[in-house]
Amino acid sequence: MARQRGTDFSSVAIRLFGYFFIGLFAIFCLVPFLLVLGTSFTAEKSITLHGYNLWPREFSTFAYKIVFENPGVIIGSYGVTLGITLIGTTIGLFIVAMTGYSLQRPDFPYRNRISFFIYFTTLFQGGVVPFYLIMTQWLHLKDNYLAVLLPGLMSPFLIIMMKSFVRSIPHAITESAKMDGAGDFKIFTKLILPMTTPALATIGLFIALGYWNEWYNAMLFLSPDLKYRPLQLFLYNVVTSADFIKNSSVSSNVQPRDMPLESMKMATAVVATGPVILFYPMVQKYFIQGITVGAVKG
């Protein structure tokens, strides 16, 4: 009886220590975002005098007024980014899942050779210049949203991850389905995909975040002549323009010294990350399950 009480006390102590450690870690993760949020609503003069604070010393929405100076353009940028994210995530997730499933099947011919070429790209890449020439000279995707969509459809890292996820599913399920007359595509869509929901949520989140944060390819292939460009590139241009105005002696509407550059940086971060923060709780359960699938083999 005494031994059982001792065991219960140790279990409670370990749980309390775990809750304390996780809570402390959560606070460390939450404080930077609160700092960004508070600074975005702080006047530039207050930031210059007092530095960054969790709570605004001098409340101001001037940074958001500049960011949303052209609401039609920023709404269009949101639409472009949202469309590219949804389409790219749907197509890319299907391709990555199908590739990972194919490469782990023992009866798939040349799977080791194809896997080698996929792994090889994680070590060596052609570089920016060949990539730019292929996209513009061969595929003729200059000023085309496909130049932003296509490069993110497949990732060697995600293919390897998906392959390890699907490997935990017994191959006997595929063989029994084949004996019942099911084709490979039907096996993949009707059996494999429903059994890998946590993996799909995890990989889909990675793909979606990649598209949502994409700005480099948009900068390379989408010229300023386009009315709507991805959100991250639009916000990047807003900050760089504000930096130029602040450091310049010429300004039409706002004095350079009054340009809220620091609070604008924080405001753009809030505008860019807000939808992601709202979306993440919906897939959190599957994401946690997905990152543990395949880690321990039974």
Automatic annotation (TrEMBL):
Membrane topology qualifier: Multi-pass membrane protein
Presence of the UniProt keyword Acetylation in the record: no
Annotated ABC transmembrane type-1 domain residues: 78-283
Main localization category: membrane
Transmembrane spans: 12-35, 73-96, 116-139, 145-166, 187-212, 266-283
Cellular localisation: Cell membrane
InterPro entries associated with the record: MetI-like (IPR000515), MetI-like_sf (IPR035906)
Superkingdom: Bacteria
Protein name: ABC transporter permease subunit
